[in-house]
Design goal:
37% helix, 7-stranded mixed beta sheet, alpha/beta, single chain, 12 helices, 295 residues
Length: 295
């Protein structure tokens, strides 16, 4: 957290949402940082696609490194689940190392560890490109129990081989080409062979008809079995955050001890509901998620 007004605003919002923070504090020099990253998002409309634009110059988060947090004390407090993402790993050469440090401590404490690959070429290209991404993410995923990412993330982020275009199974008319989970599921054997400790691999399924009209689904491989959500048609207000909404809903269901299908469906429902709000943070209630998940 940076000690300037934007940092104060973020701290206030974190407190208001009831989240317990663990901050590494940075002093702003009054001119050029360190800064808190700004992400500009144009939602798009109709045939005009959405655009996300980063301003991450001299970002405080990219300065984080191993040793900045007392993970032993943090996980001694009974933390049940630790999550991170490929976006944070891509910020600098030290952030991936910080993730690995945290995950190793989490595993030793018996905490469930999850990771969303979230491969973003524009971030990795700043300092290492895809080759560095694959080497960094592979070391991270060695510590992961629950992995989130689509077939493109698996190929570009982990260097796994995907099926040739001509060899992809033909989708059913009911599912549509982007909602058929067969291509994703066909890559699971590679994931588990390389990372046998992983218990869950999951992703959303999305077919974009226009900026504001999407077909939506989700799929998860859990302990050797596949679970596919219902599908629905979304009237999208803002697509950013739908995948994160799915992941958090899935984690909620798994933490609550729900049967596998009853964990996947609320994840799918939460991701869908999140696309009806501005921005990438949820305003949906648990009751709304459960009601939508039931259809």
């Amino acid at each position: 957290l940076v000690d300037y007004p934007i940092g104060d605003l973020i701290a206030e919002r974190v407190k208001a949402m009831g989240v317990k923070p663990f901050y590494k504090r940075f002093k702003h020099n009054g001119v050029n940082g360190p800064n808190l990253a700004t992400v500009y998002s144009d939602r798009g409309q109709g045939v005009r696609a959405p655009v996300v634009f980063y301003n991450r110059s001299n970002e405080a988060g990219a300065l984080l490194k191993p040793g900045d947090f007392d993970w032993q004390s943090i996980f001694a407090g009974g933390v049940r689940w630790f999550h991170s993402s490929g976006i944070f790993a891509a910020l600098s050469e030290t952030t991936g190392e910080l993730i690995i440090e945290a995950m190793k401590t989490a595993k030793a404490a018996g905490t469930i560890v999850s990771f969303d690959l979230n491969y973003r070429a524009k971030l990795w290209n700043i300092w290492g490109g895809q080759k560095k991404a694959v080497s960094t993410l592979a070391r991270i995923v060695e510590n992961v129990d629950v992995l989130v990412g689509n077939e493109e993330d698996l190929q570009l982020g982990l260097g796994l081989k995907g099926p040739e275009v001509g060899s992809k199974p033909a989708p059913s008319k009911a599912e549509g080409p982007k909602l058929d989970p067969a291509v994703f599921l066909s890559m699971i054997d590679q994931v588990i062979k390389k990372y046998p400790q992983i218990k869950v691999v999951a992703t959303t399924l999305r077919e974009v008809h226009s900026t504001n009209r999407h077909s939506w689904g989700a799929v998860a491989w859990i302990d050797g079995q596949s679970f596919v959500s219902p599908t629905c048609e979304l009237d999208v207000y803002d697509r950013v955050g739908g995948g994160d909404g799915f992941a958090s809903g899935l984690f909620y269901g798994l933490l609550a001890g729900e049967p596998e299908q009853e964990a996947v469906n609320p994840g799918w429902a939460h991701g869908a509901l999140l696309t009806t709000f501005p921005g990438d943070t949820t305003m949906a209630t648990v009751e709304q998620v459960r009601a939508f998940a039931k259809g």
